[in-house]
Amino acid sequence: MPPIGDSTFLFESLESNKNLTNYDCFSEKTTGAEWVERYRGDSNAHGKSPVYVDGKYQWVDIQVLGYDPTSDRFEIRTMAGMTKQVNRLSILFRDEDMDKFRSRLKICKMRQQVAEDDTRFQEYVSRQDSKEVSSIPMSVKKNVLGKTLKRRSVDSMNIIVQDLVADLIAQV
Q1: DSSP character for 60?
Q2: How far is it, in rounded angstroms, from Cα 142 to Cα 160?
Q3: Of 35, 46, 78, 85, which residue is least crowded by CB atoms under 10 Å?
Q4: pLDDT at residue 119, rounded to an integer
Q5: What pLDDT is recorded for position 157?
Q6: Residue ending a domain, choose from 100, 135, 160
Q7: Opening angle at CA 95, ends 93 and 99, nearest 5
Q8: Does 81 lie in the same domain as 26?
Q9: Is 24 in the same domain as 92?
Q10: Does 32 share its domain with 92?
Q11: How far is CA 30 from the centre of its chain?
C-alpha cells in the first residue's frame, strides 16, 4: 500500500482525526466487526493509522485486533507492538480505496471548519448589544452569498447550501 503523503499526516494543521468523527456522515458498507473478521488470522499489515512518532503524526502499518460497537472504536496494534483504541477515520484499511478515504477525511475537515466558523460567528453575534444591531436587507444577503459561492469549491458549496437550508428551517 503506498504511503499517504510520504507517511506524514494528511493535514498539516490537523494532529488527530479524533474530532473529525463528529463530522463523518458517510455510511459504510462494511461494519467494524466485518473489518475485523476480514483480517482475522492475517499476519500482514491490515492497514495504516496515524501514530505520534518523533514529534509528529505519521501513518504506520497496523493490525486490527478488535472492534467495540459500544464505543465505535477499533483496537489496533502497530507492527512495532504498540496497541491503542482508534476511531474509524484513523484507519486506512489495506483493501480500502485511498482516494475515497482521503476525500472522506477532506469533507469531514471542511464540515468541521464550517461548524467552527459558525460557532465563532454565533458567539460574536451573541456578544453584540442588541440596540446596535439591525437586520441585513435581503439584497445585501444575496450579494454576499453570490460573491461567496463564486470563490468556493463544489464540496464547500454543498455544505454551505445544507447549512443555509438548516438555518431557514430553524427560522420558520
Answers
A1: E
A2: 14
A3: 85
A4: 86
A5: 67
A6: 100
A7: 80
A8: yes
A9: yes
A10: yes
A11: 18
Q: Are residues 151 and 131 in the same domain?
A: yes
- Where a domain ends, among 72, 100, 128? 100
Q: Which domain holds residue 77?
A: 19-100
Question: What's the structural domain count of the chain?
Answer: 2
Residue-wise pLDDT tens digits, 19-46: 777 777 777 788 899 999 999 999 999 9
Q: What is the CATH number of the domain that holds 84?
A: 2.30.30
Span 94-149, pLDDT tens digits: 999 999 999 888 888 888 888 888 888 888 888 888 777 777 788 888 888 777 76
CA angle 117, 121, 125 (to 5 degrees): 175
Q: Per-residue confidence at 171, pLDDT binned at 50, 70, 90?
A: low
> Cα–Cα distance between 7 and 15 in angstroms, integer?
14
Task: Write out pLDDT tens, residues 72-99.
Answer: 999 999 999 999 999 998 899 999 999 9
